[in-house]
Amino acid sequence: MRTTHLTAVLPVALLCAAFTAGCSAKQPYTHDSFTFDTFVSFTIYDTDGNSTAEEICAGAVGMLNKLDDMLSRTKSDSEITRINGNAYSSPVVVDLSTYNMLKSCAELSDLTDGAFDITLGNISDMWGIGKENTAKPDDAELKKLAGKQNYRNIVFDDENYTVSFSKDSFSLDLGAAAKGYAMDMLDTYLRNSGVTSAVVDFGGSILTIGENNGESWNITITADETNSPVGTLKTNEGYIATSNGAKRYVEYDGIKYHHIIDPATAYPADSGIKSCTVFSASGLISDALSTAFFVMGADKAKEFYDKYDIAEYIITLTDGTVIVSDGISADFTAL
Ligand code: ADP
Ligand code: MG
């Protein structure tokens, strides 16, 4: 049922506030790991018993590591590095799942009018988030890269599964979507391995499977660098992703520049949003839209929501105001 193909994604499932009678609680199995440059924390509440939770988690981490090897743009032999290095000179054949993911990402870039843009790799490099850059990027150089919407210049060949670039001087950065896509893959992996009830915290993004002892899940939503909660969201199955400007940044001359870029300006987004959480039936959509809404600002996010109806959101503005989309307002409890 779950798919990362945007066109095939159903509107977000209606959240059920009703509780059913609970059965006796089992002790969950927990496992912590590090992959995709972030911590992943599994809590497995129930399985069909064919494999142990320990075996399942070990297999899941192996699967995630392989995916990271394909999608990272810092690893020299990843598919993304291969695309970035060669796609302007000649079409690059890619794995079918990577191909489909990139197509969905390009579609989401288009749908968000470039607020989410997987082709801002060169801008990310200039800002050097996560690296030890010594100087702030040059204004004039940044201006040259702004507003290009290069996702329109990715050419997909559906017969040969190749990706090419019809223009030079851009590169892919999947930092805003790879974790979400990995959550989709993880969900399928866990279900196929017999998991019937689980929560996975994937570097702050949350995947829920099944029910919480016969009831909905209660997920704490945070909005700042200290992870202080703004409220709790009652959800059934789905994916929660949060984009937060305070979490990753570089500092030049004592000024902090965060890692969520407005592709229209090539500068860190400054839309009045402090943190944006998105809930949907797809990890990829939740991840991409949390970034896109952060860039767009609350008014445009609402317009997008009214038009497409594919995801719910909780937005915390820089002044502390919390805005919750209509579809989940009854399930959100402010703290
Ligand atoms: P996090 O990775 O902290 O969960 P996001 O999902 O918002 O947060 O992803 C931010 C990362 O995505 C950045 O580090 C950068 O690599 C990339 N990125 C930044 N701005 C954009 C954007 N507007 N569109 C697509 N990718 C972006
Ligand atoms: Mg994101």
Per-chain topology:
Layout: E1 29-35, E2 38-47, H1 53-71, H2 79-86, E3 92-93, H3 96-111, H4 121-127, H5 139-145, E4 154-157, E5 162-165, H6 178-192, E6 195-202, E7 205-209, E8 217-222, E9 229-235, E10 238-244, E11 249-252, E12 255-258, E13 261-262, E14 267-268, E15 273-280, H7 283-296, H8 298-308, E16 312-317, E17 322-324, E18 332-334
Antiparallel strand pairs: 1-2, 2-6, 3-5, 4-5, 6-7, 7-10, 8-9, 9-18, 10-15, 11-12, 13-14, 15-16, 16-17
Helix pairs in contact: 1-6, 3-7, 6-7, 7-8
The structure holds adenosine-5'-diphosphate and magnesium ion.
Average residue pLDDT = 91
Top-tier CATH class of the largest domain: Alpha Beta
**Count of helix runs:** 8
- In terms of per-residue confidence, which ranges show pLDDT below 50 for 5 or more consecutive residues? 1-24
Helix content: 25-40%
Give me the CATH architecture of the largest domain, please: Roll
Query: Helices and strands, in N-to-C order?
Result: EEHHEHHHEEHEEEEEEEEEEHHEEE
Shape: globular
